[in-house]
Amino acid sequence: MAAHISTDLAHISEAVRVAKGILSGQIGVLEGCIPLSTVANRIVPDWWVDPDFVVFGGVASEIDALPLGSVREMWSSEALERKDVEVARYTQVVRERVMAACRSIVDRFGPHVAVDAV
Question: What are φ and ψ of residue 74, in 5° steps?
């Protein structure tokens, strides 16, 4: 394992699992950026300059006000309709960058985790 990569296999496994989930469509592009940004500082020393994790952190910081996941249950249907347009627009804007970063995470860190861990 390279010196700049964490030896915290649990967080690396989580990052690879989420990245693969985004790539396969099982996890939403925006939704997946939240856990990836959360584990970043446990995997790389400087996530804000890491070419992949900075993408997830940037997206996560932009979606704070969007109804994603279980929080949607607390929103009115009218508000969801309006915000869903914003979610779709922002997803379209960031999709390729997020997908490229996910492919890179799998390439960079996938070899460091057991196949059954992801």
Answer: -95, 0
